Amino acid sequence: MIEVSKTSKRDLRAIEDITHARNLAPWSADDLLNELTRPDSLFLKATRDSRISGFIIGRIIPSVRVKDGLDAEIYNLAVVPVDERRGIGSLLMESFFEECQNRFVLSVWLEVRSGNSTAIGFYSKHNFEPVTLRKSFYRDPIEDAIIMRSDLYRS
């Protein structure tokens, strides 16, 4: 059984291990700890068989399109390699969206490497659409970023 819940201080070592296993841009232990205390942070973990198998981290931000509205940004979403393709990423995304709706967030934004077709496909499955391109945004290697958005309230 997979359970999604808020991340706590005791989870941070496992989160760091996942970031290294997935070769994500590293967050320091202090950065992760600080994220737990931010009122604008959304930091969720997925637990499978009593171990952390994935996480999603993002923040609530002022809306870029609606005055006095709220949006959210996703900074990282990762699942341990052994647990890929078990629906954990989708559960994390759905839980993130639910938390956003509870806070009246209008849209969720993220950026993804233009060459990461697996991630782009995953995000598209969750109603993210490409909005624009940031040239040479990523380093090691240099690569463009696709900015994607999912509107939580569709007409």
Write the layout of secondary structure elements.
Elements lengths: L1 E5 L5 H10 L7 H9 L3 E8 L2 E12 L7 E10 L8 H15 L2 E9 L3 H9 L3 E10 L4 E9 L4
Parallel strand pairs: 4-5
Antiparallel strand pairs: 1-2, 2-3, 3-4, 5-7, 6-7
Walk me through the structure.
The chain has one domain: Gcn5-related N-acetyltransferase (GNAT) (Aminopeptidase, 3-Layer(aba) Sandwich), CATH 3.40.630.30. It is α+β, with helices and mostly antiparallel strands and 155 residues long. A hairpin with a 4-residue loop joins strand 6 and strand 7 (143-151). Helix content is 28%, strand content 41%.
Give a quick precis of the structure.
The protein is an alpha+beta fold and 155 residues long.
- Residue windows where pLDDT falls under 50 for at least 5 positions: none
Question: What oligomeric state do the depicted chains represent?
Answer: single chain
Structural class: alpha+beta
The total number of structural domains is: 1
Global mean pLDDT: 94
Q: Report Rg.
A: 15 Å
What is the highest CATH level, the class?
Alpha Beta
- The total strand number stands at 7
Mind summarizing the main beta sheet? 7 strands, mixed
Our measurement of the CA-to-CA distance between the termini, rounded to an integer number of angstroms, reads: 34 Å
Shape: globular
Stated plainly, the CATH topology is called Aminopeptidase
Question: What key phrases describe this protein's structure?
Answer:
155 residues, Aminopeptidase, globular
